[in-house]
Specification:
Number of strands: 4
Strand content: 15-25%
Number of helices: 1
Shape: globular
Order of helices and strands: EEEEH
Distance between the termini: 20 Å
Amino acid sequence: MASNRNLQKAHPAPKRANNVFADKQGNVVRNNNDQWQNRSNKYWNTIPKSNQLPQQNRQSSQQNRQLLQQNRQL
């Protein structure tokens, strides 16, 4: 694969929290001190708790479980 020639393997940053998540659409979020934040325009913005609906949390949890299962199969 010639297109992958310049890609480097990702490594976790040493001595830093592993709390950043990304989806297929490129949305990036992190959990910082029990607050969810999204990345936009080079800044982290706190997501209001009113936007964190229980239904969304259930869907996210289900998606996370599916991703974990897929990764275990690799």
